[in-house]
Amino acid sequence: MAQVAVYDMSGKEVGTVELSDGVFGVEIKEHLLHKAVTTILANSRQGTQKAKNRSEVSGGGKKPWRQKGTGHARQGSTRAPQWKGGGVVFAPAPRDYSLKMNKKEKRAALQSALTSRVHEQKLIVLDSLKMDNIKTRDFAAMMKNLNIDRGLFVLDSSDSNVILSARNIPQVKTTQTNSLNVYDILKYQTLVLTRDSLKSVEEVYA
After folding, report:
1. Using alpha carbons only, how large is the chain's radius of gyration in Å?
2. How far apart are CA 57 and CA 74, in angstroms?
3. Contact partners, residue 85, CB within 8 Å, separation at least 6
4. pLDDT digits 0-9 by tens, 52-92
């Protein structure tokens, strides 16, 4: 089992903790990481784009001029794509972009992402993460103490003081253990867990 240091909010080392090899010490499967990120991004697309093709625009029933003798090119409708107000060629229509992953693939991808953070020394464990008041300044000071620029903070339970304090910092995201996903782990430079959330992650994703 790998061991990592445990810090308090002032950046002082207060102990160590052992990481479960079943979650933080697995073989990194890059193809599953790619598949997981692709799936998450695809599933976040609304797919509500829409434009009208020539069968849906109104008007255009009358032939604009006779077929021959005018010197113009032949035209059958003023709602053809080359006309102003005409329909769009191959117009986009609402569609479902969602993709699926098997449960075992999702779990293996998440374990690979967590293991990659350990290998890259981008995992920080806090003894606890509590704030008495909603203060973005205090949260930013805590990040500076821990030398964190871009961080994903994983909470064991919803803490409104912590969540609201971090909300206005662009390079920070807070989440809970049951909402942890591969995309967020890889997007943010540092993964920050508390002792409680670490225990929950090991229980849920083992």
Report:
1. 27
2. 20
3. 57, 59, 78, 79
4. 999 999 988 889 999 999 999 999 999 999 999 999 999 99
